[in-house]
Amino acid sequence: MSNYPMRINKYLALKQISTRRGADELIADKKVFINGKLALLGSKINETDTVEVRGAKAKEYLYFAYNKLIGVETGSLYPAKRGAENLFPLGRLDKASHGLLILTNDGRITERLLNPKYFHEKEYVVKTSNKLRSNFKQKMEAGVNIEGYITKPCKVKIINDFTFRIVLTEGKKHQIRRMCSALFQEVADLKRERIMNIKLGSLKPNILREIKGVELITFLDPILHQS
User: Fold this and answer.
1) Domain 6-53: assigned CATH number
2) One of 29, 94, 161, 221 is an active-site residue; which one?
3) Is 24 assigned a catalytic role?
């Protein structure tokens, strides 16, 4: 860990004890101690300090890959799985799109995964109604003007005359559809297959798959430790 001295709530979040807001609640409840003394809201710690959380049950964070169906609103997702009632999606897929969503109860990583200042790859397979133009790949990868905003460089692989694979590091609303529209291509199908190292793979539609072990560590590490 770096960036010392560090606010105590950030430290507890990085240690996966709580969210920053939850850490503030623990401090207000007089359950957090720094070098044996009660921590205060806004307290900062150094790398050599000893931090204790007393009498608080650590929250169990859950992470699932989920294959969303076309026609389903992201905000209406309530997958039927025991213990999953408090899950929420990280980001969105529009109603007409399908594929990978990550569902979690870990509020610590939402802003860090979705904030455009961070670079996290998301991969999609897109089918178009009309044949792809000869300069489509070049123009998409260079950045497209969507209503005054120039998209960041991306990676495009042409699969056939009507299908391409694209890897983005940003997530503007309806970005791929708007990029295609600006280049006179109409999207017929849009499927997200990967978020960072989490892959949709053979996961069936409307099914949850728990993310754990090395796969989870690989996913969380760059998110929780970015500054």
Assistant:
1) 3.10.290.10
2) 94
3) no
